[in-house]
Amino acid sequence: MIRIAFLGLGGVGGYFGSKLSRRFAGSSEVEIIFLAREKTAAAIRANGIKLITPEEEFVTHPTVVATNAHEAGDIDYLIVSVKSYDLASGLEQFRDCISAQTIILPLLNGIDAEEKIRALFPANQVWSGCVYIVSRLTAPGVITETGNIHRLHFGCDQSREKCNELYQILKACHADIFLEENIRDVIWEKFIFISTIASLTSYLDVCIGKILEHEGNRRLLTQLLNEICEVARAEKIVLPEDIVASTVGKMGKLPYETTSSMHSDFQKRSRTEFRSLTAHVVQLADKHRLLVPTYRTLLAGLVTRNNLTSDKF
Questions:
Q1: Cα(169)–Cα(105) distance, integer angstroms
Q2: In angstroms, what CA-CA distances link 14 with 85, 269, 279, 306?
Q3: Which residues lie closer than 8 Å to 161 by C-beta, 6 or more apart?
Q4: In sequence order, what E strands does 29-88 have?
Q5: How many helices (H) and strands (E) does the chain have?
Q6: Contact partners, residue 123, CB within 8 Å, separation at least 6
Q7: Which residues of the chain have pLDDT under 70?
Q8: Is the Cα dihedral 263, 105, 138, 41 positive or negative?
Q9: I need a labelling partner for 152 at 20 to 30 A (CA). Which of 121, 130, 145, 189 fits?
Q10: What pLDDT does 207 receive?
Q11: What's the pLDDT score for residue 313?
Q12: Degrees to nearest 5, angle at CA 55 with 52 and 59
């Protein structure tokens, strides 16, 4: 039996995990395991996990909801979609069920997750992936999707057979799954999208619609996009010639009130992925001796406005 575990049951892990759980309920070939904190685990054990999308609404009851490695058992594939600041602690919590044969697929917003995971698990295959989706954890065990895009891209440069195996399993429950030859370029395209919009919605404290309709805000967005694309090219990333226009076009297809998860976290005064989504761009720019004045302005503004210290981003 192939055992696939999800660590992080928010908008990404909860969405794809619930679809897989429903598809393979009662299967003797694939088992889905949810790795969760006590509060979330209790809610799912009692009521199942509920997915609400514009097309459907369903509840599925996974057979394994674990709060520790003993409850989880051995894992073949571990799909990780926690917040970047919870990555190390989340993996350490379940270290004893991650063998050298476990393949780890991070689906995080930033571009530095693989490096962090390899430092913790140097013997494991660590693949690369990203997701385009607008969904949120709206209550313990309840995932709500509000957008019209839900694509998962992944790839690896190691076991092609294993890549195809996971691809076929994911494809069995969701159409928009893509196995990529050049996944690093794909991840950077996503990072360009999420870094700019997360940084700007948080800095301006507005939704995407208000950024796109306001000339000054839209100009800031274009400046951010040009700066991060310069950093990407310095990192040897091959970008489409129309990357700036196409990224703005993707944003324009989202519902007017859509915002970033980082903006939502700032509004709640919670921890944010500030370090991975904003500060990391400035750090890479410094590495390549590039000027990114708009990013630096937003970085300084967010730090000052939110009284951030290094431990909060």
A1: 14
A2: 18, 23, 28, 29
A3: none
A4: 30-35, 49-52, 57-60, 64-66, 77-80
A5: 14, 10
A6: 100
A7: 306-313
A8: negative
A9: 121
A10: 94
A11: 40
A12: 35
Distance separating alpha carbons of residues 221 and 187, to the nearest angstrom: 20
| pLDDT confidence of residue 306 | 64
Q: Which token pair is 122?
A: 């140097």
Q: Dig out the tokens for 260 from the structure.
A: 């970033």
| DSSP assignment of 149-160 | EEEEEEE-SS-H
Global pTM value: 0.89
pLDDT of 248: 95
| Chain centroid to CA 193 | 12
What is the Cα–Cα distance from 144 to 10, expressed in whole angstroms? 9
* pLDDT given for residue 307 in this prediction: 64
- pLDDT of 303 reads 86
Distance CA 157, CA 139 (A): 37
Measured CA to CA, the distance from residue 62 to residue 59 in angstroms comes to: 10
Q: Which two tokens stand for residue 62?
A: 């996974």
